[in-house]
Amino acid sequence: MDLVLIQLLNGIQYGLLIFLAASGLTLVFGIMGVINLSHGSFYMLGAYCALTLTQFTGDIFLSLLLGVPLAFVFGVIIEWLFIRHLYDRDHLQQVLLTFALILIFNEVQKILWGSYPHSVPVPGYLQGGVKISELLSYPYYRIAVAGFCVALALAMMFVIQKTRIGRIIRAGESNREMVEALGIDSRLLFRFVFAAGVALAATAGIVASPLESVYPGIGEPVLIISFVVVVIGGIGSIKGAFLGALLIGVADALGKVYFPTFSSSVVYALMAAVLIARPGGLFGRAA
Amino acid sequence: MLARPRPLVIVILLALAAYAIALPFFGGAFALKFATRVMITGIFVISLDLLIGVTGLVSFGHALYFGLGAYSLYFISPTSAPANAFLAIPFAMLLAGAVALVVGSVAVLTRGFYFIMVTLAFGQMGFSLFFDTKIAGGTDGAYINVRPVFSLGSWQILNFQNRAAFLYFCLAALVLSYLFLLWIVRTPFGRVLQGIHHNEARMSALGFNTYAYKLASYVIAGTLAGFAGMLFAAIDGYVAPELLGWRESGLAIMMVVLGGAGTLYGPLLGAIVYSLVEETLKSASELSAFFSLFTDTANAKWLGGILANSWSIPLGLFLIAAVLVAPKGIAGFIEKFAGQAKRGKPREVAPSTEQRAAAKAMQLEVQNLVRAFGGLVAVNGVSVKFSPNKVHGIIGPNGAGKTTFINVLSGALRPTGGNIRLENEEIGGQKPHNVARRGLGRSYQRTNVILPFTARENCALAAQARFPSPLRFSNSWRRREEDEAVERALAAAGIASERADIRASNLSHGEQRQLEIAMLIASGAKLLLLDEPLAGMGPEETGRVTALLRELSADHTIVLIEHDMDAIFAAADTLTVLVEGRLLAHGTPEEIRMNSAVREAYLGEWGQEAKP
């Protein structure tokens, strides 16, 4: 029973983390109409960035403070160099270009950090955990990560529901041409949204880095799972991404307990089931 | 429609084939193996092009079938004896095809981005099936100890161990696969696939069960990919879960796009170019030789070494440049170089001189029809009868629910309540393609023809809908009947025969609207639902089309929505007025003109001019 509880907690925490990555993906696709396969690479770069920054600062949260603005600037540069050429292209060319970006980012990672796994230390004040039973405890750091993700999710929903930029983003989701007709510079909006997406993926990579080792290709499973979450939640929907991510996190964790051999298939089966019932995802417009 | 390859393309392909045939006489073992691998990859990517370029289904999980084909060779191979390729090949194709049937039946329900993601997810499921379990060596993969042979009894026809023989076999397989796909694409079946790519709603409104067509295309592509995968496993005698993974699927998409999707030969060239670039970038010596053209030997060696170590970076940059510079891929360049496509000569069919015999058309009756969107009731309890061989106009202010009404009649929307009877048979709530097959054809507010097809091809597509069996590969079956229907339809809709072989995208707006009507006639529909057929037309075109509608009523029932009041009052036998989803009035134009409720509803809009 304790094992199930721990797995459930892990599942929720994993889901919250995935939400950070998936929300960036869903914004970029929902608003800009760009399929970004390199999204996982930004998660990976975030994790490696945490590795290097923590060697200097000694604290993962300081690294977060430094890393997120760096990621945002990096996102602006990537958008300016590559992504902006894709807005009027079809999905195929977007897939091709962002796939090529993965090749490049993976190689850059190999040159800068090598192909061995590394680990990032949990800060001293978050060592240890909450006792659940005689034998099991739940680490403070995981609780902190979950809390951080929830806070960020609330902040995002506030921004999207209540602020000016949020209104533009919501308008852009449902009708891109309309936003342009209203006199908003869509180039600037897109640059901001893409950079925000990169920053979100990198944030997820940074806070996740002390949880598991940092290794090449760490972003690829995140990319695939994020796509599953976006499809389940409905394209462009932050709320959908949030519920979808929690659903996936819990399904994955329970799958590991009850169907250990087929655990990774559980989430895909879940996605297929959702799509048969609701082809546009839980909160999406029918495609 | 995808034309036969140009002479230039044929020359390129023949030159490549000749090179492959000659290769065993001068190439080393490595070159032979490399060429074999490229040819097998070629089969794989052209099968993917049937989905991506022809049918418009971007599958991100095509490696699933490639990998299954590869594993099937492992399953069927005895530990220390060769498998018989006569069994191994059908086994691989059957396995891949069966899985494609199951996966496709779900995946094809979705489209666009969702289809990409669903196929990706199924691919990853297949990957984890082999990666997470102990089947066939699990993560480490497994070896096939003895390569397969083609044998009959004790007679060994071809051993895959023999590199040259294997290469020739793969070449033959590639050529046959290419010709097979080229043939498929040009059959009536393939014509529908291309129609679906460009306009799925239109195809189902014509009466094609697009689900069945897409599924058939998916299964054919999967089966062929399984064949390629089986051959691939025979190169090194090794299979690993990565063969099914998303990177493999992504690489295949990349080759398709690099070569030019939808051309079949393009992806083949894409596979060749990609493999050559990758191989060159991987080998330091070739790079050093290249750099020594610009700098001294030591520097060149150093540069080449660095690049060869990190060959993914230049490869990635090469691909990015390719997307940005040549969005239509290598094939795009070739087509540009080869100039405008010459189309096949139209088949000469004597235009039927006989006057069209008047024939009784169909009657459509609607009772208490309701359609609600949540709380908004767009069509609210409408009852009306459209009698046969008449022109019926539907008018009403914007937002009156006219288009919703037509969408419910044609099956695009399900009714919330009420009945729709076509010749006393209930059709309410049926799928659009079933409604269309009963003889109800519709056009759309926006012009909705298949733009890359010529006018004649558009009509041929529609004529084919008279016998819309999904697996129709014969070009001659019913050909005469259909050709006649096409010619009749073109003539009836007033499309001049010298305009019939021009791509629809190059026709004028008026001609495109006429083409829509021609398609409906060719499809054999007896009742035509037209959504604003006169929109955007000048006075001369309007006159021509209204005259056409009058003529068509000799053997059709016509129901049309129209905003051009002068034209519709002149052309229609009856008028139906909808206001806020309700039936306000129904009667002859004269009755409607006199109707005080109508005049009130419309006063200010056209009440002034419409005064008698």
Please sum up the structure shown:
The complex is a heterodimer of chains A (287) and B (612). Chain A has 287 residues and is mainly alpha-helical.
Enumerate the strands of the largest sheet of chain A in spatial order, edge to edge or round the barrel. 1-2
Helical content of chain B (DSSP H or I, runs of 4+)? 40-55%
Task: Give the overall average pLDDT of chain A.
Answer: 85
Q: Biggest sheet of chain B, in brief?
A: 6 strands, mixed
Describe the strand arrangement of the main beta sheet of chain B, using strand numbers.
Answer: 10-11-12-7-13-14
Radius of gyration of chain A: 19 Å
Average pLDDT metric of chain B: 82
Low-confidence stretches of chain A: none
Name the pair of protein chains with the most residues at their interface, and give those residue counts: A-B, 44 and 43 residues
Beginning-to-end CA distance, first to last residue of chain B: 51 Å
Rounded to the nearest angstrom, the radius of gyration of chain B is 30 Å
Strand content of chain B: 5-15%
What percent of the residues of chain A sit in helical stretches (DSSP H or I)?
A: over 70%
Largest sheet of chain A: 2 strands, antiparallel
CATH topology of chain A: ABC transporter involved in vitamin B12 uptake, BtuC
From the spread of the alpha carbons, the general shape of chain A counts as: globular
Strands of chain A, total number: 2
